[in-house]
Amino acid sequence: MQDVKKVNIENKNNIKFKRDRRRKNNMTGYYILVIILSLMIAGVLSVTFAFNVHSININILGSGTTEYSKEELLQHSGITGGENLVRMKTEKIREKMLEELLCIDDVTIKKDYPNTVEINVVPSVPAAYVECKGGYMIVSENWRIIGQVVEPADEKLIVVKGFDPVSNAEKTVMQSKDTDKDEALKTILDEIKSQKIENMVEIDISDKYDIVLNYDNRIKIKIEKPVDVEYKLQYAYKIITEELRENKSGYLIYRNSLGYSYVSDDEYRRVNGSINSMVPKRPGLPETEAADDGPAAAGAPPDADTEENEDEDDEDEVIITDVPPVNAEPQAGW
Fold first, then answer.
1. Residue ranges per domain, the chain?
2. Which among 79, 131, 69 has a CA at the least distance from the CA of 103?
3. What is the bridge-based pairing of β-strands 158-161 and 200-204?
4. Which candidate, 189, 211, 62, places its Cα nearest to that of 127?
5. Among candidates 270, 154, 157, 253, which has minimal Cα distance to 212?
């Protein structure tokens, strides 16, 4: 009788399972190795042969016109073509151009894969002359210092006094030693531009609590603190253009709940600029009873010579007029 050999089927199954698992693990490792090698090759290619610059586009943005040709801008960027986009340091290129070119406010370098570079340039637009040591700085709309002069020459630019800048170095952004003046001046300039106010020739911010704007070299607008600037400028401009005659010269003084008061130059000098000593003249109340004597009381017409003299006196008389708000939104303190 032949012996029967026992076979451990469970043992065979375990061996097969381990063999399959080992083969699968080997394949997984192989795939990972292939992926790593592929990434390494792609990385080497991307910083050597692939993504090299073949096209350079230069765009002029904003409302200004550039003093530089596209060839000059390209030269100062340092990009010649063939550079690798992956390795290109766009921020360094930006800093280089801002340092070398005076009349640009900003520049951005954009990578457009696979092989294009976009250079976007914002030209400087002169906005104001700002008083500084030795003369005036020419400042752009973005507060970049783009030049210096002894005296302002362009009548279209506003002159700023009392700003007290930290530095007058060209190609830097203007800052005041008093940060409150930074914010105040920015707010005022932005409002003048947005409201399209013409003929504003000067801003004196020496005292940040008593700011004075000069309109057309004849009306000085005292707005006090830089609060509710939008309303104050809108209100003052309305009075100047619609309420005051063009030959008027004096001060518009903002007095909180009373709004603006107009004061002539002579009267302002007479009281040495103290608005507290000025009491607005109000129209007299109508007469309810006739006076006991005098031609006016009897209803007689006034003498012609007397009336003419009164008119002449009115020309010399300085009247402080409280002007009510004109089409303006109610403000706190009214």
1. 55-123, 219-284+304-334
2. 69
3. parallel
4. 189
5. 253
- Outline where the chain has alpha helix (H): 9-46, 70-77, 90-100, 179-194, 229-242, 265-270, 304-316
CA nearest to 84, candidates 119, 118, 123, 47? 47
Report yes or no: 217 and 201 within 8 Å, Cβ to Cβ: yes
Q: Give the containing element (helix H, strand E) for 137.
A: strand 135-140
Query: Do the strands 145-149 and 126-132 form a parallel or antiparallel pair, or are they unpaired?
Result: unpaired
Phi, psi of 266 (to 5 degrees): -65, -45
Of the candidates 243, 286, 247, 246, which has an alpha carbon nearest to the alpha carbon of residue 262?
243
pLDDT of residue 322: 47
pTM listed for this prediction: 0.68
Instruction: Give the span between the Cα atoms of 251 and 263, in whole angstroms.
Output: 5
- Burial class (CB within 10 angstroms; exposed 0-12, middle 13-18, buried 19+) of 242: exposed
Chain segment 241-297, per-residue pLDDT in tens: 999 988 889 999 998 778 899 999 988 888 766 655 554 443 333 443 433 444 343
Phi and psi (nearest 5°) for 296? -70, -40
The separation between the first and the last C-alpha atoms of the chain, rounded to the nearest angstrom, is 125
d(C-alpha 73, C-alpha 101), whole Å = 9
Residue 256's nearest CA partner among 233, 279, 227 is 227
43-71 pLDDT, tens digit each: 665 556 578 999 999 999 988 888 899 99
DSSP for residue 42: H
Predicted confidence (pLDDT) per residue in 146-194, tens digit:
999 999 999 999 999 999 999 999 999 999 999 999 999 999 999 999 9
Give the closest residue to 47 by CA, choosing from 85, 96, 82.
85
Provide the CATH number for the domain formed by 55-123 in this structure: 3.10.20.310
